[in-house]
Fold this protein.
Amino acid sequence: MNIVRYPDPRLMARTLAVKDPDDEVRQKINAMYDLMYEEQGVGLAAPQVGWSARIFVMNSTGDREQKEAQRAFLNPRIRKRRGRVIGPEGCLSFPGLFIDVERAAWIQVEFDDPEGTSHTAELDGFEARIFQHELDHLDNVLLVHRMSQADRIRHRDALDRLQRAYEPIG
Ligand code: CO
């Protein structure tokens, strides 16, 4: 399992809901956790490993030892949102790129866990931001789509570098 970087078209592939998750799904989720920690990320969405499934993982501490902060979200949805907050975001699919993105400050969400049980939760702060960033991945919305015109000019070199580094497979 490897990180898929922009502009790989797998980041733009349509994602499918995961019903009745099995051991194979749970193993892939565990592999996503490993890769997220290795890459020093706080979130990782399935399309970022070339898996077109509506799944993402996060740990807002970025620390493998902080297991209570580790969560996997299957078929996630935002039910309610409140407030707006602007803050910096990076993405493992855009190494070296950080831009300010406006997000809801508070969200009420629903999702399934890796056993297939449904939950609702309320998130704020960094976890709310990570959730919204990762949910964007499942809807094929990337940092490059959240950039203002000024961001595109400011980060043109970084985007050009990613374009040049990308080698299509096959
Ligand atoms: Co990302």
The chain has four helices and five strands. The pocket of cobalt (II) ion is lined by residues 91, 93, 133, 137 (CB under 6 Å). Helices lie at 23-38, 125-138, 149-154, 156-165.
